[in-house]
Design a protein that fits this description.
mainly alpha, globular, 0% strand
């Protein structure tokens, strides 16, 4: 295999496969007609290509919630908040809203309180 083809294949992988936006668009494309293929693509994005990126796991959490799997969604939120991006305000709010939609207001309040205790200098705006 010529070196140019190897280089092209590597740059394609670096440019597209490791970007959460690419996977989001691909999964949205698959979802309406082929939900099982979309789930498989989500697993690949979350477990292989972008496993250290918080955007991919937030996308997975929303995906699992949309497909009726709140346990998997909660696991994805816990991974983001616990390991990948503990101080990410958008992840804290997304997790709290998820728990509120699951009628778990105590867990929703606990997510916000934990964030405020962990990051006291951060200010959360009341958007309600």
């Amino acid at each position: 295999m010529p070196a140019a083809q190897i280089c092209l294949g590597t740059s394609f992988h670096e440019i597209f496969c490791t970007r959460a936006e690419f996977w989001a668009r691909y999964i949205r494309f698959l979802e309406p007609d082929r939900p099982e293929a979309a789930k498989d693509a989500m697993r690949r994005a979350q477990g292989i290509h972008c496993k250290g990126r918080h955007e991919t796991h937030l996308l997975a959490a929303r995906f699992h919630e949309r497909h009726g799997d709140p346990a998997a969604a909660r696991t994805a939120y816990e991974l983001v908040l616990g390991k990948l991006a503990p101080g990410l305000v958008s992840a804290v709010l997304a997790s709290a809203n998820f728990e509120r939609r699951q009628v778990r207001t105590i867990d929703s309040c606990a997510a916000i309180t934990t964030f405020q205790v962990t990051f006291p200098a951060a200010v959360l705006l009341d958007l309600a």
